[in-house]
Fold:
Amino acid sequence: MDFMVFQYPMISVQACLDGILLGILFALIAYGMALQWGVMNIINIAQGDLVILGGYIAYFMYLYGIHPAWGVIVSPIIMFFVGIAIYKLVINKVVDRDLFISILATFGISILFMQLMNFAFGADVVLANSDYGTTMLFNSNVVLPNSKIFSAFISILFAICLVIYMKKSKLGRAIRATAQNARAAKILGVDTEKVYAATFGINAALCGVAGALISITFTIHPYMGLPYTIRSFMIVIVAGLGNLPGVAMSGMGLGVFEEFADYILGTEFRIGSVFLLLVLILVYRRFKLSRKREYLK
Amino acid sequence: MFKMINKNLILYIGILIFGIAAPFLFPAFKVQLSILCVLIVLATTWNIQGGEMGYNSFGNILFYGLGMYLCASVQVGMFFPLAEWTESGGEKTFVHTPAQFFQGMAVGLIVAAVVPTIVAGLIGYSILGLRGHYFAICTLGLGVAAGEISGGIEIIGAGQGFTTPPFPDVGSLDSRGEFFYFLSFFVLVLTFITVRVIYSTRFKLILNAIRDNEDKAEAMGIETMKYKIVGWMISAFFCGLAGGIMGGLVGYIDSTDVAFDGREMGVFMVLMAILGGKGTLWGPIIGATVFHIFKEGFWTFFLGWQYVALGVLIVVIVIYFPEGIMGWLREKYPERFGEVVDEKDRKAQVELK
Structure:
């Protein structure tokens, strides 16, 4: 336990800013999860592993001398096809089934990906160095790496593009229609199978963007996927499906929470605190819902 | 009816005799057989929620890991300072005498069984109110959180692990394997009897009612929450025991790789129950046996690729084989399961195909 964070206000400012920039990234991943959850009614445990895979694509570009920031463009394109492949091989067989089946199947995919990445890229913690330098604020008391600012900016850009795409394009409208009522959409001539595949692909592409940004700003490791899944799940249940401002706000909130947990409890309890927060949120939600149920009676 | 009981009794006695004779018949596989017993216990107890109650938990690993740490800590802490033990790590500065070892193990196992049961009872009211996938993810979170947190606690070895007391020198070299085998076999028999008794009472029917339609069950006047918690506590009791034994058997506890190993043991228990057939008495037992034989027999062929194989196995079983072995048998030979099949109906179905 370390309460330095309360004695020096500048550390709090640092933690808040770090957390907000981190939270925007989380919100991007969570948006992908909300998309597939809303459209296909699937909870994808492999979400975090898709993120890490996207990160490794950017890292590989860095190894071959290309600036990793280009990964933001390359990685979603590759990940889109990875997503479609996963959909065709596994997900389309579990879409209509019990939710637990989809959770377990994607858990299997998650283990598979984790291990394949471990073989392909090794078990070391890596990061792609972007050489963006840092920004000093408040008399150099707060240090912000420019890469974090860059990643937050790119995340917002992608989110805005996606929202516009979902509103305006034909596919976007088909996706929204399927989310509202799959059967009705089918009757009206929407090829739901194609929509599902596209949704999963878009989700994977979003994960690819987020992964590329994470490989620049933080570190990636083959086994780090599950926490990202849990974070995005948590953000989605707090914000609700199809509530983009809510997703952004709760993402930032989670980022700030994590930074403070890091300072106060110590880095070794950071992931643990995220998972505990998930349990607490779910339990809180359960009591809130049960009160509502009693009220309805 | 009388004949039926007789037949079953012969079967049970046969299995019991085989179980007792097994370590002498296959002396080289004693450790594997004890692990098999532990796996069967885990799969069977998972089945109480996952199969009978319809609450698919990823979090039973919490009780397993808790039992493992508690048993080892009590075993050490009864006679020596725990902090110094974990600090010295592998170097044995303290040695248990045989009497101390067995005393510690006995007390440790009792603690390892009782504390997780209490924990399950305490958290049960909040956690079991969640439905469906929220429950699944919440319990997954619980298991991982427990692993991460225990990995940060110094007194139980933090990240570097915890060596459990080594088996004392009691003369013969085989005694360690035999001791752990009979211990785990005893727990297996205990589990089987408990589950068998439970499944023949009204309790099981209530659990099934909860699985099929919880709101309706509640409307019929069943206090579902009470039964859910009791079911979870029974699971926790045996998971804790299994964990305690496994800790002694493995000899080394690591927070995320051995105790709260959601990626391995936590998935195994779900997978074994599904492979054998959820919601049946024999399903998890058959599933665990098949799974363990497959795992031990073929794991060596996939050297280094075990987890890849595991991932593929999960996906394949879940997608193509969700009913499990017992479900398949039931479809094939419905008469054996006491289902009355109309001959005309069956013929019509065959023609339809």
Notes: Chain B has one domain: 30-304. The radius of gyration of chain B is 21 Å.
